[in-house]
């Protein structure tokens, strides 16, 4: 009985950890190009679209390197930390709810456990602009590789901030 409770508790902790690793929004792969041929699956650069969940009308396009081969196919390869971002207004901008001054909008793992790609939304209230920053971190060492883009919000549409 005690052992069964311990196993159930352990399973619950693992499930919570797994849910915490899920991205906030699903990426939609737009296209990819092969960069390094391998018989077991080529390395590639993929372009993914992310729609900002709290700002309708803004889509972020992130390009990043993906490792191929057997490890890449199994999802256990460590992808390189390089990424680039371009966010654009693709429809009329509508802000669903007040935004935090700085918030992690998207995240996606770049290795089995240790590396994560982040997209952070920063509100520049003075210029009425949404700034998006992408960077990757590593649990042990971090990373300085980053990219930034900005989307001006049309005049007359104030950005509500929490």
TrEMBL record:
Record flagged with keyword Cell division: no
Record keywords: Signal
Position of the signal peptide: 1-27
Cited PROSITE patterns: PROKAR_LIPOPROTEIN
Pfam families: CreA (PF05981)
Record InterPro entries: Uncharacterised_CreA
GO cellular component, one term: cytosol
Protein name, UniProt field: CreA protein
